[in-house]
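note to self — DONT lose this again. spent like an hour looking for the file last time. sequence + predicted structure for the chain T wanted, 419 res
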Amino acid sequence: MSLLILVVFLGGAVAAIPIAHALLLAAMAAAATTDRVPLDLLVQQMVAQVQSFPLIAIPFFMLTGALMMGGRLGEAIVGTLSALVGRWHGGPAQVSVLSSTLFGGVSGSAVADASAIGSLLMPWHRRLGYPMAFSAAALASAATIDIIIPPSIPMILFALTANESIAALFYAGILPGLLLCAGFMTACWWVGKRRNLPRETGKVDRAALRHNLVFSAPAIVLPVAIIVLLRFGIATPTEVAVLSTLYAAAVSVLIYRDLSIRRLHAAIVEAGLATGVVLLVIMASAAVGWLLTFDQMPQGVAAWVQQNVHAKWLVILLMNLMMLFIGMFIDLPAAILLLTPVFLPLAKTIGMEPVQLGLMMVLNLAVGLYTPPVGTTLFITSSIAKVKVGETVRAMGPFYLVAFLVLALISYVPASVLR
């Protein structure tokens, strides 16, 4: 049954069927070929997976991002960062990295980050005469910092699937996210200095800089508040998501004064559509995951590895390679929901903590977002920059190197994510 599921799913993916639909087809095909799985039980498993209180955090975090990123805040943050680092070697690209890191504490979505920041920064880069392929590469990789530092939608999905603490995963993602930020900025500086890329040369408007700093402060405070509320147990992740939405609405009305009825409607629709897509993927993945578990595939994989691979470091390497490969072809939410039941038993056999596995999995799949052939942020930033995807990929080398170094740290140094 497991083989049939894999064949049907891969066939659907190759035929360009949406991932959620391909998963449902695979589940239906497997259930139809055996009388051991009643269809009503399969449907119950699908529905039960989305009857979870922590899942409410997903639409509220998405709505928070839509409210905060859709107004004047984005321009203020970009203006502040441009004034601070735009004069450094590789400074314009470093603004992309820092903007993604700051927005990551608001939206938790790499795709939203790449779209919003790209529309703000690419025209500026083009006016400077910046190489647009490198600009697209920097933003495509930096946008994935959004799903490493809290709040992170993929980490919520992993926590629900692995029955782990969302707060623990959020807290564990802070250091890797900051390391990625520092590494990507270093890569931008190195390339900018080596190639003598254009940078900002105009005089700094100190009055505008102070205004932008004050103007963007309420948004910069939000990710810090989220960490404090979760770290000290003041609120649950779901409560934090609701509070962050209320905070975003209040700030937009009282401070930024840019929340019109039309923009509120657009933000709610955007968050609702994105949540609907995620929930459909969750339900379809739940069906496939339950069938694979019923067929004892995860236990079989763990048993095979135990019998044939004895070195812990080699097991971790194999897990990383498999996650990287799958992340190149499957959407991140679906990949997390499918891979977690498979790798969790394997991680336990080598003594790896679920939190470490979660960070390792999210970072691996994040690299898939800017890796061909189905790299979402790669295609988004290339489209905004109006360059060919191949040109963007050729500029990705330094960013891949940084990502793999941070991935190795997470994989082989548990203290980097465990507290």
